[in-house]
Design goal:
Length: 84
């Protein structure tokens, strides 16, 4: 996991408006995380990298909030967004 640019302001896009997280896209100021993740997760929010800090990551869409279903038990909500 990395956060190129450290603390920056970036856009968060809600991908599933039927979830209780809200349905409005918004600007967020914190670390914009670039991470490795399981492609089987259910993505709730995404962000797109501008390429300003790592040109080769320009226009890469990365999950910000997602859920994962473990083998047993309830789903887990995972947030890759730092709160400040």
């Amino acid at each position: 996991m990395q956060h190129p640019g450290n603390i920056i302001t970036y856009r968060v896009d809600v991908t599933q408006s039927d979830q209780p997280i809200g349905d409005n896209n918004f600007e967020h100021t914190a670390e914009q995380y670039y991470l490795n993740y399981d492609p089987a997760v259910d993505v709730l929010e995404t962000t797109m990298f501008s390429g300003e800090f790592r040109l080769w990551r320009k226009n890469v869409v990365m999950p910000v909030m997602f859920t994962s279903m473990p083998d047993r038990g309830p789903g887990i909500l995972l947030i890759a967004r730092a709160y400040r």
